[in-house]
Design a protein that fits this description.
The complex is a heterotrimer of chains A (304), B (522) and C (377). Chain A has 304 residues and is mainly α. Chain A has 13 helices and no strands. Chain A has a domain of 205 residues. Chain A is globular, with a radius of gyration of 19 Å. Classes of the chains: A mainly alpha (304), B alpha/beta (522), C mainly alpha (377).
């Protein structure tokens, strides 16, 4: 029972983790992309559509990643090349993604989905207590952990990661040193888009295994909050994602138990929790100021 | 006067007809320049003459519109700073290209083109800094360091690339006179090692002392190549400005008892942000008729002090600050203005003026309360007619040059916007004027006008407090100079007793209390 | 090729006026492509989208459609006018949808909880309650931003979900109409609680549209003529300049959120007391988000917002018309609106920058910056 609950928590946490780690890289490069929700839902619809037509959930996942990255290019072109306001453009990406996905996904509403298979390793998966937990989950779960570790390693242990952080700290200085700020930011935004797309694909290929309009239900926004909550550190994103996974699974179980609390109040819990967590983390202005990438959201026009 | 190339057979770097155009402005117009091996070559010119544009082209951050760059007699194109570094050109920026959230070693790593482990870089940096007498801690966060320390990182970073030509952009503007002396020693040593240095400055004394040759720019054009040792500061200044340079005229103060206009009694302030300075128990009196200067290296609490005095940040007790005898510590900036005070902050765009608002609207920014009767109708509507009339008056008074009838603030050059902002406050005839960096980045003509206006205001019976990092400026206009260091303010030293050395020592943190001579002077 | 921006010394007045129209034009082109890809004749589709709902202008028989346009435009304009104050002052309230729902709930309290209370004063009270409800709800992100430095984008957005869920609970639970055959929703409002129609004979448009126009004119006046408007612009552009002027950024956060919350709340109660006539779970159909597009298309100018609100309202009606006539899914509407915002933002770049295409430096054809190769070594 407990093992099963932990596994469902992991299933709820994984999409948040992937999307948030992607956005973390974007924000570390100094770009605020509020379009996570839009990229995620595009990933979800693309993943479902390709998996449904080809029958392969893997192709679906790849499609989700590719579509997420391509969709983020729109944002990158506007904010990085045309230097539009990042907040407004991020909102536009979300609105466009929700609209487009609704249109593209209409044909798939109510269709049976194709599910990503779970891992099965003989003997290991059958181990009592921890077998399923450690060796029997879906492959994306393992990839999400690997992703978190790789991003942490990349950002803090490699030269390229240092360059990316430098661009987020002071794009003027980076430009003066000959670092190609715009190129790095394009790559970061596309990485974030790919991650958000993957997270969306996970939702439609595993978490619900069907296409429902607006199925991301604010998860993209929660992922954004997680990045702030984690003070732009990958491993803390992991902790935050599982905390939120626990809250959303907890409220589902509470609903199932038939508590006297109206189900709507329980459904509101993850959103309220997001606000509470944001308040707790941001009340220390000093800490927030130190951790926030200093160029975050600021426009940059290189002089030539 | 032109002796380019006549003494040396081969130049390390030669520039022919280099031109850069921004919109309709020729920032550099067919510039010629030659730098020999092992020389310190000065690039002179006032603000806006095109010095920074020129060196940015040499360093590959700007693309020239036309012209040739020859490196060791080979024609080259420098497309990026990386290519410049590969050639052997290093650069120490005026506004440092550093990253506050990273350590010194990480900052250095970012400009090395091959991937080297941080620990190795730290070790090398430590060795090099020791060898050149530029102590630094490779693992310190840059955000925690003083400007002098930051410059050391820039220099060490540049030296680690083993450049043959080092470009230094206004390096002494952030140093105390004593620190500058040390820097000159380092530069002379580099010259002895056979390295060439392009030294950008508008400080003529140090150019005369340090440099072997000089190229003078004015309005983007080379006006002279010369040997600075054969010139006087006055002749160099004439070349830079193209006109006789007149210093501000400072008539003696009227005799008799002067009234206290601004009194600061034990002002302290906790640091506001992660990298800001704490103010410790500051006492200062500014009387009518006098100009008091506050010297100090950037980042020693001047900004925090200005915010506290202006009322952008309130004090804890009302009596900490008096304006014309009234306790004003708990009054906000507009109440302080109502008491007769006026303020000009350091940052022009985004603090003293809103960039996308028109000049006439920016006039309202600091005066909608004090001049409500003139600029607002009786039901509180903005009287745009009165505003544009007043704005025209200020433009005429201060000789503000602009390209449109009522342009946005961001469309003006730095000097012209500063003249407008100072004029906006002078137009009120304030009893107390507090100015932070009145002529920073301003051309010589505008600077002279601003300085004279401040002196005239004081002599007309107002009290003027000028915060500046430019010692020459303070010596020119002040009746007494106090020094701010690390959030402490020294007692003011009357101008007759002040010397560069004395002020420089205080700027470097010599304990004012421990030097009785300084204490007695007041 | 790379795109290079050259900052204009002055904002271009020409492009300030032109950019929304260029954006509209580009959206139409993109829309035509979209419809072709969906296998529809793009000209037919655009006709049903943008012309058919307007036939009432010359055809009295279709005049009801203009009323429907006003009904759709009213909440969009009301909300967007409030948002313009927020966005101009750099406060990113994106939770107008939640404030809309809260306003609807607060205003509905009177007819739902006190159905016996029937008097002419009921409606004004409802409108005031609606505004108060929206403003109170908007004050939460404002308070969190001022007091705890919490990002208002995320908090205001999260509160949308909370408000929708709360409304859902109300209309299925305590406020459900006992005679509603277990459909969620409150009792139908009595006549004193309904906003009258302007010309009942011609169509359903109600006084909510007039509220929207009044709000737009009032806010336009405030923004362009008063010191408050000046304060909003200064604080939005540079908070430090605002502090130098003696304006309080914290008070501005509250001011902007309260105004936009009140207007969103007014839109909400006008919707339930207008065309819907009772509170149900479906009142939240995204006006609060579409209004963001309206605000930007109107270039954050309340008078421009009136025009923009009518255009976006047109896309809703057009979507319905196209669905009926061409079997184009009404889901295209939101895609259309999303594209529009993208083009609006992209075109606004032209106001501040000249855009030029530059060839990469390796091969420099004529037409690129007048650069002559500096003797490639």
């Amino acid at each position: 029972m407990l093992e099963q609950i932990i596994i469902t928590i992991a299933t709820a946490a994984t999409p948040l983790l992937i999307a948030a780690v992607g956005e973390l890289v974007v924000e570390r490069s100094g770009v605020l992309n509020l379009g996570v929700e839009g990229m995620m839902i595009m990933g979800a619809v693309a993943g479902f559509a390709i998996a449904f037509t080809t029958g392969s959930p893997w192709l679906g996942l790849v499609a989700a990643i590719v579509v997420g990255a391509l969709f983020s290019l729109l944002f990158a072109f506007l904010t990085l090349t045309l230097v539009t306001n990042q907040v407004a453009t991020g909102l536009a990406l979300t609105l466009l993604g929700l609209g487009l996905s609704g249109m593209l996904g209409e044909a798939f509403t109510g269709q049976p989905g194709v599910k990503l298979p779970l891992i099965y390793i003989p003997v290991l998966t059958d181990l009592p207590l921890v077998g399923k937990l450690l060796f029997g989950q879906d492959p994306v779960f393992y990839l999400s952990l690997l992703l978190t570790g790789s991003v942490a390693w990349f950002l803090f242990r490699t030269r390229a990661g240092l360059t990316l952080r430098s661009v987020g700290d002071n794009h003027g200085s980076a430009h003066a040193l000959g670092i190609n700020v715009i190129r790095i930011r394009y790559l970061a935004v596309m990485f974030g888009g790919a991650c958000a797309g993957a997270a969306g694909g996970y939702l439609s290929l595993l978490y619900t295994t069907q296409w429902i309009e607006n199925m991301t239900a604010g998860r993209g926004w929660i992922a954004l909050a997680l990045v702030v909550f984690a003070s732009w550190r990958p491993w803390r994103v992991l902790a935050g994602a599982y905390l939120f996974g626990a809250v959303s699974i907890g409220q589902l179980h509470a609903q199932a138990l038939g508590l006297k609390i109206p189900s709507q109040f329980l459904s509101a819990l993850p959103y309220v929790a997001t606000i509470v967590v944001l308040v707790l983390i941001s009340r220390n202005r000093r800490l927030t100021m130190i951790n926030t990438p200093a160029s975050l959201g600021r426009p940059f026009v290189p002089d030539r | 006067m032109d002796n380019t190339g006549s003494q040396t057979t081969s130049n390390l770097l030669e520039v022919r007809g280099l031109t850069k155009i921004f919109g309709s402005l020729k920032a550099c117009d067919a510039v010629d320049l030659a730098i020999a091996k092992g020389e310190i070559h000065a690039l002179l010119g006032e603000n806006g003459a095109g010095k920074s544009t020129l060196v940015k082209m040499l360093f590959g951050s700007l693309e020239p519109a036309s012209g040739d760059i020859l490196w060791k007699d080979q024609s080259v194109r420098v497309n990026s700073p990386g290519e410049a570094r590969a050639l052997g050109i290093g650069m120490v920026f005026q506004h440092f290209s550093l990253f506050e959230a990273l350590t010194a070693a990480e900052n250095i790593a970012l400009s090395l083109d091959k991937e080297t482990p941080i620990s190795e870089i730290a070790e090398k940096a430590r060795e090099l800094s020791k060898a050149y007498g530029l102590p630094l801690d490779p693992f310190a966060l840059v955000g925690d360091l003083s400007v002098g320390e930051r410059q050391r990182i820039e220099i060490v970073r540049c030296l680690l690339q083993e450049p043959e030509l080092i470009i230094l952009d206004e390096p002494t503007s952030v140093l105390t006179p004593q620190e500058a002396d040390k820097l000159f020693e380092t530069l002379e040593r580099l010259r002895a090692e056979g390295k060439s240095i392009l030294y950008i400055s508008h400080r003529l004394e140090e150019v005369k002392r340090l440099c072997d040759r000089a190229t003078v720019l004015r309005h983007g054009k080379v006006v002279a190549h010369c040997d600075p040792r054969n010139e006087s500061p006055a002749s160099l200044a004439r070349m830079m400005v193209g006109d006789e340079v007149v210093g501000a005229e400072r008539p003696p103060r009227e005799a008799g008892e002067q009234q206290e206009m601004l009194g600061i009694c034990g002002l302290s302030r906790k640091p506001a942000g992660p990298f800001s300075v704490q103010l410790h128990d500051i006492w200062l009196t500014v009387k009518s008729g006098e100009v008091i200067g506050i010297a100090g290296v950037a980042g020693n609490g001047q900004g925090e002090f200005f915010e506290a005095v202006s009322g952008e940040v309130l004090q804890e007790a009302p009596n900490v600050l008096r304006i014309r005898g009234e306790a004003a510590g708990r009054r906000d900036i507009n109440d302080r203005r109502m008491l007769g005070a006026a303020f000009v902050p350091e940052e022009r765009l985004g603090h003293g003026a809103a960039p996308a608002l028109r000049l006439s609207e920016n006039l309202l920014l600091s005066r909608f309360r004090t001049d409500a009767s003139a600029f607002l109708s009786n039901i509180g509507l903005v009287a745009s007619g009165a505003l544009s009339k007043a704005s025209k008056r200020i433009v005429a008074d201060m000789d503000v040059r602009k390209s449109a009838e009522d342009p946005e603030a961001s469309a003006l050059s730095g000097g012209n916007l500063q003249k407008f902002i100072i004029g906006r406050e002078l137009d009120r005839k304030p009893a107390v004027m507090v100015v932070n960096q009145p002529t920073w980045g301003v051309d010589a003509g505008a600077a002279a006008r601003i300085r004279q206006a401040l002196i005239d205001l004081a002599r007309g019976g107002s009290a003027v407090l000028v915060i500046s990092q430019d010692l020459d400026e303070l010596f020119e206009i002040s009746d007494a100079i106090a020094v701010m260091h690390n959030g402490h303010l020294s007692d003011p030293i009357p101008i007759g007793e002040a010397t560069y050395e004395k002020i420089g020592l205080l700027m470097g943190g010599a304990d004012a209390a421990a030097s009785p001579a300084v204490k007695e002077a007041v | 090729m790379r795109v290079e921006l050259v900052k204009r010394p002055q904002q271009s007045a020409l492009f300030s006026a032109l950019s929304p129209f260029i954006a509209l034009g580009l959206t139409l082109i993109a829309g035509a492509i979209m419809f072709s890809l969906l296998g529809k004749n793009p000209l037919d589709a655009l006709y049903y989208y943008f012309i058919d709902p307007l036939t009432g202008i010359w055809d009295p028989g279709n005049r009801w459609q203009l009323h429907e346009l006003a009904i759709k435009a009213a909440p969009l304009i009301l909300i967007a006018v409030g948002l313009s104050v927020c966005f101009l002052s750099n406060n990113w309230n994106i939770g107008a949808e939640g404030q809309f729902v809260t306003g609807a709930m607060a205003g509905s309290m009177i007819p739902v909880l006190f159905p016996e209370f029937q008097s002419w004063i009921v409606l004004p009270l409802m409108l005031i309650m609606g505004m108060a409800g929206g403003a109170a709800y908007a004050s939460i992100p404002a308070f969190l931003k001022v007091r705890f430095n919490t990002n208002e984008i995320l908090t205001s957005l999260m509160l949308v979900y909370v408000a929708q869920l709360f409304n859902d609970w109300l209309v299925r639970g305590p406020w459900r109409n006992p005679e509603g055959f277990s459909f969620p929703g409150t009792v139908r409002f009595h006549e004193y609680a309904i906003i009258p129609q302007i010309w009942p004979d011609a169509g359903r448009a109600h006084w909510g549209f007039v509220f929207a126009l009044l709000a737009a004119v009032a806010v336009w006046f405030m923004l362009s003529k008063t010191v408050k408007g000046f304060e909003i612009k200064v604080l939005g552009q540079s908070p430090r300049a605002g502090r130098f002027a003696g304006f309080s950024a914290s008070r501005m956060v509250f001011f902007a959120f309260l105004i936009s919350g009140a207007l969103a709340g007014l839109a909400g109660i006008s919707e339930v007391a207008g065309p819907v006539e009772h509170l149900n779970e479906k009142i939240s159909i995204g006006y609060g988000f579409t209004a963001i597009i309206v605000a930007f298309l109107g270039r954050l100018n309340p008078l421009g917002i009136v025009a923009a609100g009518l255009i976006l309202a047109l896309t809703y009606l057009g979507g319905e018309a196209a669905q009926i006539s061409l079997q184009v899914s009404d889901k295209t509407v939101r895609a259309f609106q999303g594209m529009l915002l993208f083009f609006v933002l992209a075109c606004d770049t032209l106001i501040h920058y000249r855009v030029r295409l530059v060839a990469p430096p390796a091969a420099k054809p004529a037409g690129a910056a007048a650069t002559e190769p500096a003797g490639n070594a």
